[in-house]
């Protein structure tokens, strides 16, 4: 009886990890620009990233691939911001939705509501811009203005900052975080007092310089000549000698 031959199993080959390669005909998303209007810029970038994920198929990949691709696309500034994030025990760093939420918080914290209202109040229709485009721009800016929670003091503060004539003081106020109405008033008053003091000092210097210019050049010479020609002091001793 012929014994059946044992099946010879082919050696198993190590599985090669799948590497995602985006279609070459789809340009990558541009890097996120960290400007003064970061919240709006981030929202625009995130929409562009979502469309890129769908178009390239990144959305179907594992979480770690999606996060890595996002960090590759967001640019150096975004990677530096990502490195500052803190993670809770239940937060997975390879979950792209959690990563996007972290970026939402990071970018929104760096948006100054007063500055956005300043942009909103100063955004006029430009030549050649139709009403639809103009309205879209206003709505985009208004998203970061928090008009639904504005208080009377904030209205006065914004109008004050917009209405002052000193551009340098306005620029300084716009750079301040958590600017209150009282702080704005104090800053403007301090600037006015400083300007008044500088003005008075300038007037004093001009007055002294004017006196110096109007004083005769020979005044000093006449004074010396007067001292030389002044009659000698007539003392009692002189009288006795004469007598």
TrEMBL record:
<protein>
    <submittedName>
        <fullName>Uncharacterized protein</fullName>
    </submittedName>
</protein>
<feature type="region of interest" description="Disordered">
    <location>
        <begin position="214"/>
        <end position="243"/>
    </location>
</feature>
